[in-house]
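Most newcomers find our protein records easier to grasp once they have seen one. A learned vocabulary of local backbone shapes supplies the integers on the structure line. Here is such a record, shown just as it appears in the course material:
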Amino acid sequence: MPTYAIGDIQGCGQQLQNLLALIDKTSPDVNLLFVGDLVNRGPQSLGTLRQLRSLGPRAKALLGNHDLHLLAVSQGIRSQHATDTLDDILNAPDRDELIDWVRHRPLALFEQGHLLFHAGIFPEWDAAKTMALAHEVETMLRGPDWVDFLRHMYGNEPAIWSDELAGYDRLRCIINTLTRMRFCRPDGGIDFSIKEGLGAAPPGYIPWFDMPDRQTADITCVFGHWASLGLTLRPNLIGLDTGCVWGGKLTAIRLEDRALFQVQCSRAEQFA
């Protein structure tokens, strides 16, 4: 059964339907892996969640920073931003079921020799360590104290990984790495300020995937999150955020042969 990895949807529900229809024409029986940022900024966040949930076990969806933001907003921990499009979920009759479904999504997946996460990883993390650290956060999000955990989730520190980190500092660093990382600073810590492409980095700032001695260099990492980077294809790297919500494309890649499937998204059409 072929496996497709799909980039950031961000509530672009119509484009998701179009992309799944395109995939279905080629391979009606497939596995689907979504790299996170399922909701927000696009006009159909509610429909997107309902559709993903309806796909059942053949679809696995990762958590991105926008999905974690939805959880925090739903519990009154964070306020919505001016550009958020989460009201349809928050006011939906099946709101509680959808929020529960979201908080049970993973932060990392390992499928067919591919390690999938939303944003980035530290160079010293190999695949097994990434999965284990992701599981630490997943356990908290799925547990009885998940709302209290969300209250401690936000913040930019610590930005440098250490195996000695403990408690909320440790969990916050894991979350920030897997859902927010783009560049690493000269000291190896996460930079949270640069959101543009590779040319925007000051001297000494390195994209996480170009960090020396990266322990995942022998496998293929699949990620989203970085729309300004665009489609990125290297022998051991697949970047899938092609900016659908900004008028770009929604992209899927078949992992077995790297065949690409894309649908166009008009920003003007999205927000008309």
